[in-house]
Amino acid sequence: MGDGSTAAVVWDKGLLAYDLGGDHPFNPVRLELTIRLAKALGVLDGVELLVPEPASDDELERIHDVGYVTAVREAPLVGWDLRHGLGTADNPVFDRMHEATSLVVGGSLLAAEKIASGAVDRAVSIAGGLHHAMRDHAAGFCVYNDVAVAISWLLDHGFDRIAYIDVDVHHGDGVQAAFYDDPRVLTISLHQHPSSLWPGTGLPTELGNGAAEGTAVNIPLPPGTKDPAWLRAFHAVVPSLLGTFQPQLLVTQCGVDSHDEDPLADLSLSVDGHRAIYRALRELAQKHAGGRWLAVGGGGYQLLRVVPRSWTHLIATVLDRDVDPSVSVPSEWLDPVRELAPRAVLPVTMGEDKDTAFQPWGDGAGLAVDKAIADVRRAVFPLHGLDPDDPRD
Ligand SMILES: [Zn+2]
């Protein structure tokens, strides 16, 4: 890589076992199609894939109650009166649920370990990003919170200032909750406004408790927000906070359900916008976090047209092998997908010909997103010694 960064990709077919079954939108085919597209484009040529082991109970219990871990392990055998959010439409019980979810956690932990040991500067596990899982219950398709476990592990292995950035369309509530009292972890979530989307949290007034006040940051965006407005909000808030917080590591949840075609939510980003986000995250890791960047996946339910392209861009960005949006989607990838879904309109190129250029906030343009930006800056910036009204901050 040009700047001397090293990077690793966590992947193993075993991760496909996190399968909520039936018509559930969280379908592991999205992971398989992503890896196949990345391979078809040569993005993974010569890259050794890191194969994870399941996380141990001790690792899971960094974040989760013992009783919950037991409930998850026993759920496929019990089948009734499960509690803990298990056995619902969102979080159905499936065979070997504990083992499959532990492996997802193990993937994010392996990525964290490689960065902590100095073996690599960056690592990505697209199977990770189960950001809604809570201490004692499953939520929003998430059983164990792999990313919170990985951050907790990092806090015990040489890191005491970690910035977590969550760009999934849903609020990163589980990760926020895990570190709501911990000033060592800055959590920043950009999401569709909670008045119009589950889980209904993520207002700018959620700031963190006690000494951690100001280390929970929430940027709720209006439905219909497109790439330029999303990026305007991101750049109006995130770089300044990273500049003052000075993280040693960036952890990012890279859900792609913010796409215009996603069936579960109503933001209007494009694959090009996702690519621009990843490039911005990489630049921020270089500038503010010593080049260290741990990226995980997350939501994303347009399985054929969006997730494979967007997460191929994520992997490529982590590896410094950026793929131009004009590059054709290879027939090697398209042909089997066409057989799988003969009626689907499949993508032709790696982009959508969308302009992601944006005007930086502070130009007084009075865009719809500017109220959201002002609300966040006014709530958070003074707690970091920053001026909410000064565009230079
Ligand atoms: Zn989501």
UniProtKB/TrEMBL annotation:
GO molecular function, one term: histone deacetylase activity
Entry keyword set: Acetoin catabolism
GO BP: any one term: epigenetic regulation of gene expression
Protein's pathway: Ketone degradation; acetoin degradation
Domain of life: Bacteria
Histone deacetylase domain: residues covered: 24-317
Stored CDD domains: HDAC_AcuC_like
Family to which this protein belongs: Belongs to the histone deacetylase family.
Listed name of the protein: Acetoin utilization protein AcuC
